[in-house]
Amino acid sequence: MEPIYNLNRIIRLQAVLEIVTNQTATALDLLADQATQMRTAIYQHHIALDYLLAEEGGLCAKLNETNCCLQIDDNGKAVKQLTKEMRKLAHVPVQTWKGWDTDWLTSWLPQKEWI
């Protein structure tokens, strides 16, 4: 009885791990999407401020900044690829019982009918 009990616990643990991995991956995907949207909004605001302050030399001149280059990396695609790999790694396909494999018993016999 104990081996079956342990097997059932392993199967439950495996299912919980897959659920937790999928939920974590979903959360990371949402955060990556939000970061991409924030990056876009920040660039749009920077452009709008440059336009409004164009007569004064733009945003950087108004703030008296000499190195005012705005660069925000977009790692959304990399995060999405990692979460895709996480899901694939955690997923275990459903396994079904197909009966006993008896080929190993007869595989060493000659290919002729021997009975």
From TrEMBL:
Domain of life according to the entry: Eukaryota
The name this protein goes by in its record: ENR1 protein
